[in-house]
Amino acid sequence: MFMRIDHVGIACHDLEEKIAFFERTFELTVVAREVNEEQGVKEAMLHIADGEGGGSYIQLLEPLGPDTPVGKFLAKRGEGVHHVAFGVPDVTQALQEIGGRGIRLLDEKPRHGSMGSSIAFLHPKDVGGMLTELVQAPERRA
Ligand code: CMX
Ligand code: CO
């Protein structure tokens, strides 16, 4: 079902500051920046590697406001790893299969994610405390 780790999402207060930190410390490069109103984030993707079916990245996330998933996370836990995203060939199918195994789905159908991907989230309480994202890369990245 999982083809790779697509990205690790990291919650931060100041996106530009964290981008600069990752660039100078790990020599990573930003390949995409986006504001995703639906998810309540301003974000940047830093490229790690390319693989079959898509790349892998660090996703830096700054909340658009306090009443957003990342805003609430920062208030409660502070900066740090927010979620892990796995690459799947077909998000809709993966949701059906995983939902059928009793895991609560935070999205019943795929939503718009970074760089044209389709994404959906699974409830962290049903996945050992890890907020889990499923990512289907767009055709051109495949
Ligand atoms: N990782 C692990 N556990 C988490 C969590 C996270 N990121 N966020 C919340 N939780 C835990 C909370 O600690 C809480 O546990 P306790 O009851 O033991 O305290 C429980 O889950 C419920 O959390 P909450 O604060 O009451 O609920 P929220 O209203 O904050 O909702 C969640 C949590 C996961 C349902 C919500 O954040 C969500 O729907 N997330 C999916 C969307 C998202 O995160 N988008 C931003 C990223 C976009 C992208 O990657 O592109
Ligand atoms: Co993500």
UniProtKB/TrEMBL annotation:
InterPro entries in UniProt = Glyas_Bleomycin-R_OHBP_Dase (IPR029068), MeMalonyl-CoA_epimerase (IPR017515), MMCE/EMCE_epimerase (IPR051785), VOC_core (IPR037523)
Residue ranges annotated for the VOC domain, each copy included: 4-137
Give any Pfam family that matches. Glyoxalase_4
Query: Which Gene3D superfamilies does the annotation name?
Result: 2,3-Dihydroxybiphenyl 1,2-Dioxygenase, domain 1 (3.10.180.10)
Provide the GO biological process annotations.
Answer: L-methylmalonyl-CoA metabolic process
- Which SUPFAM superfamilies is this protein grouped with? Glyoxalase/Bleomycin resistance protein/Dihydroxybiphenyl dioxygenase (SSF54593)
Annotated GO MF terms: metal ion binding; methylmalonyl-CoA epimerase activity
Q: Which UniProt keywords apply?
A: Metal-binding
Annotated PANTHER family: METHYLMALONYL-COA EPIMERASE (PTHR43048), METHYLMALONYL-COA EPIMERASE, MITOCHONDRIAL (PTHR43048:SF3)
- Family to which the UniProt record says this protein belongs: Belongs to the methylmalonyl-CoA epimerase family.
- What this protein is called in its record is Methylmalonyl-CoA epimerase
